[in-house]
Amino acid sequence: MLSDAADLADTVGGLDTELEWSHVLSLGEQQRLAFLRLLLHEPALAFLDEATGALDSATEASCYKALQKHSTSFVSVGKSPALNSKARHDFVHSPLAALVLNTVNA
Fold it and tell me: Distance (Å, rounded) from C-alpha 104 to C-alpha 37?
């Protein structure tokens, strides 16, 4: 979950530590930290491409739920079963308005 990711950041010296993350963290750990950075910086808009591909479904749901509570608008594109289970392939979220695009047939 995201709280685990916060603990993970502390084990390597915090979010400002400069390391070669691909040598230190698994892909799932990197993805959880990326969500933490989004939550911390609260950009107006974020584009997420396969942002949760290495996460289990519970962690993925937790990450998206946390992001939806913030003021960041985001576009998430991926092949995640969670996105597909909601008949979504491309998902656009905005605190002002939500738009669900039709499933993309490849």
Answer: 29
CA atoms within 13 A on the CB side of 14: 3
- Domains: count for the chain: 1
The tens-digit pLDDT sequence of the chain (106 residues) is: 556 666 777 777 877 888 887 888 899 989 998 999 999 999 988 888 889 989 998 999 899 888 888 878 888 877 776 655 544 444 555 554 444 444 444 4
Residue type at position 12 = V
Question: Is pTM, for the whole model, over 0.90?
Answer: no
In a domain, 105, yes or no: no
Which range of residues forms the domain containing residue 76? 2-100
Give the CB-side neighbour count of residue 25, counting CA atoms within 13 A: 22
Sheet holding 73-77, edge to edge: 45-49, 73-77, 90-93, 99-100
